[in-house]
Amino acid sequence: MSSTQLVKEFFTGLQQRIVDCLEDIDGKFFRRDLWERPEGGGGLSCVLEEGNVLERGGVNYSHVFGGGLPASATAARPELSGRSFEAMGVSLVLHPRNPYAPTVHLNVRYLEARKEGAEPVWWFGGGMDLTPYYGFEEDAIHFHQTCKDALQPFGKDYHRRFKKWCDEYFYLKHRGEPRGIGGIFFDDLGKPDFDTCFSLTKSVGDHFLSAYVPILEGRLNTPYGERERDFQAYRRGRYVEFNLVWDRGTLFGLQSGGRTESILMSLPPIVKWRYDWHPLAGSPEGKLYTHFLIGRDWV
């Protein structure tokens, strides 16, 4: 089996495992939408809307080809501009209905850039991050510890680097604040060798359910009211702003002619914006800003 076939087998299996687990928790089934891309390739989008637990959840697999890498993929590696590409990965965003249950994002991906007469250039990327609306220290510690556990077998420095990278990447520069409490993020991973990079990426994917499911199950029945839902919708606005303004994955998908419905499934269904609004000091909403959106080292 070729290296790309091995990656594809892992990604499709990961998508299925996550969807099966979430269906058990929610009690409703994902819509499975198999699609093809005219330029080459396709994917499977699994989307659940108006669930018992998830207000919207999307778990997407894509495997696409193109004649030239989009600008978002060559910004840090201009020497690859103009190369054809093959890209595949799993990307998910889960927006629970309960404001006490955090939004979560996971992405694991593989990309090859090709040029006639030259060796293919390949790399992995990915990570996961947590976006709470009401913060709980035990949840933050659990999530970050699981991220650390995923990387520990590959060297003690990986978690420090990828945690810092995540804090810097998922940052709304125009707001001067983080999107959430972070996790891990990596890109352009091509060293020391394919097997190590693939194993690390697999470990990140394999640790997702153990990182998030205990938090989701622990918060999904917490009582809430209109105030909490209103704040959740306001903070979801930050999620939308980041994904549409700064996120490289969104830009790559749109610039490469990707499937818009699948790319934008990450956006929450109910969002609010307010003009120059700030939470009351000392309130549960204010604590999110003072105790959680501050780039802490949780483990």
Q: Can you describe what's shown?
A:
The chain is an alpha+beta fold and 299 residues long. The chain has a single domain (3-292), classed as Coproporphyrinogen III oxidase, aerobic (oxygen-dependent coproporphyrinogen oxidase, 3-Layer(aba) Sandwich), CATH 3.40.1500. It is built from 10 helices and 9 strands. It has helices spanning 3-26, 71-74, 137-151, 157-169, 194-206, 208-219, 226-245, 248-255, 260-263, 284-292, and strands at residues 31-36, 41-49, 54-66, 84-96, 103-114, 121-131, 171-172, 177-178, 182-189. The strands form 2 sheets. It has a 7-stranded antiparallel sheet. A hairpin with a 6-residue loop joins strand 5 and strand 6. The relative contact order is 0.15. The mean pLDDT is 93. Substrate binds at residues 91, 107-109, 257-259. The active site is at 105 (proton donor). Homodimer. Pfam families: Coprogen_oxidas. Keywords: Cytoplasm, Heme biosynthesis, Metal-binding, Oxidoreductase, Porphyrin biosynthesis.
The fourth-level CATH homologous superfamily is: Coproporphyrinogen III oxidase, aerobic
| Number of beta-strand segments | 9
State the helical fraction: 40-55%
Unreliable residue runs:
none
- The coarse silhouette is globular
- CATH architecture assignment: 3-Layer(aba) Sandwich
- Structurally, the number of domains stands at 1
Give the C-level CATH assignment.
Alpha Beta
CATH topology: oxygen-dependent coproporphyrinogen oxidase
Q: How many helical elements?
A: 10
Give the strand order of the largest sheet, numbering strands 1, 2, ... along the chain: 1-2-3-4-5-6-9
The Cα radius of gyration reads 19 Å
Mean pLDDT: 93
| Biggest sheet overview | 7 strands, antiparallel
Oligomer: single chain
Give me the strand/helix succession: HEEEHEEEHHEEEHHHHHH
Structural class estimated from helices and strands: alpha+beta
Distance between the termini: 39 Å
Strand content: 25-35%
